[in-house]
Amino acid sequence: MSVIITEKPELTILYQDEYLVAIDKPPGLFVHRSFMDKDEIYFALQLVRDMVGQYVYPLHRLDRPTSGVLLFALTEEVARLMGHAFTNKTIQKTYFALTRGHLYGEDIIDYPLKEKLDKLGDKHVNPDKEAQSAVTQYQAVAHASLPISLGRYDSVRYSLLKLLPETGRRHQIRRHLAHLRHPIIGDINYGDNKQNPFFIQHFGFKRLMLIAKSLTFTHPIHQNLLTITCQFDQQWQDVFEQLSWLRDDIENTA
């Protein structure tokens, strides 16, 4: 359920100074070229470079279908400093996800994950490598039910979750929520093959309902605490409206 980008996206710059630039990445956009992108035209790295008129250094990755805050460095030194911050886990990443079913309360998912390997890109990586530590905090923010039968259930249930990953394994949040049997809506790899088609039909669009909502970290040069946040886009807001969730209430939890 990946969004296909056929026209040049207009990116929103969320933050910019002489050291860093952050954008709001739309779903469907690759961060940079890879072996999977042979038919793609647009990449966040090149688009941001053209917007700011200089080379940029990607500091982290977002999966192609994931939207939200994407951060770049503008110098090699800042890229190095921020790389240490990501490695040392001093950067707080906050995500929101729309999931199947009702998941209540808050908890920590401590569930090791086997490394996800690409057949071409990771062909030299040992496939028998042990599972790596993976930890995600979650907090239930809102719940809703639609009085529509689907499969063996007499209603369609959703939860909105706030998620703080403490580690950064590939597809970590998606795999952790699937492990809890509350997969993210629109996830073609780990999701629900009845819920996903229903969502498209009922809400009128298809995408992975996972957004990288904010990044909080100490600025590598100024040393001030910085939080960069994106807004829920119109499709998210349409879902909130149809599920009778107030956007302002949800934004206040972010």
Layout of strands and helices, then pairs:
Blueprint: E1 12-16, E2 20-25, H1 44-52, E3 57-58, E4 67-73, H2 76-87, E5 92-100, E6 106-110, E7 135-146, E8 156-165, H3 172-179, H4 195-203, E9 210-218, E10 225-229, H5 234-242, H6 247-253
Structure description:
This protein has 6 helices and 10 strands. Strands 1, 2, 3, 4, 5, 6, 7, 8, 9 and 10 form a 10-stranded mixed sheet that branches. The longest helix is centred in the N-terminal third of the chain and has 12 residues. The mean pLDDT is 92.
Name the features.
254 residues; globular
Put simply, the count of helices is 6
| Helix coverage percent | 10-25%
Evaluate the radius of gyration.
18 Å
The low-confidence parts are none
Average pLDDT works out at 92
Largest β-sheet summary: 10 strands, mixed
Distance between the termini: 26 Å
Q: What is the overall shape? A: globular
Structural class: alpha+beta
The ordered H/E elements are: EEHEEHEEEEHHEEHH
How many β-strand stretches?
A: 10
Q: Percent of residues in beta strands?
A: 25-35%
